[in-house]
Design a protein that fits this description.
elongated, 90 residues, mainly alpha
């Protein structure tokens, strides 16, 4: 296995992870920021207040984008297994 093949596999894995995990992380960050601003404005310093909105937002993202995420992961896995023999033979 050459260095180019290893870099290609690593690049594809990282790109897929960012593509799949990005929307969930972005929504979690946005909801956390909004809850923090709300807590600062109202001076409510309850630590568990940010947990429920984040949980609901992440659940909604997974419900709406879940099929797309599964499709991306399935495509990546199929491509990986398809190209795996070419990595071993070289």
């Amino acid at each position: 296995m050459s260095e180019n093949q290893i870099l290609f596999m690593a690049r594809e894995a990282i790109a897929t992870a960012i593509l799949v995990g990005g929307p969930v992380l972005a929504v979690s960050l946005l909801v956390g920021l909004l809850v923090s601003v709300f807590q600062a404005m109202t001076q409510i310093q309850e630590q568990t207040l940010s947990f429920i909105p984040k949980l609901l937002a992440i659940a909604l993202v997974l419900v709406f984008l879940g099929p797309w995420m599964v499709k991306i992961m399935t495509t990546y896995t199929i491509n990986l297994f398809t190209e795996l023999p070419s990595f071993v033979l070289n």
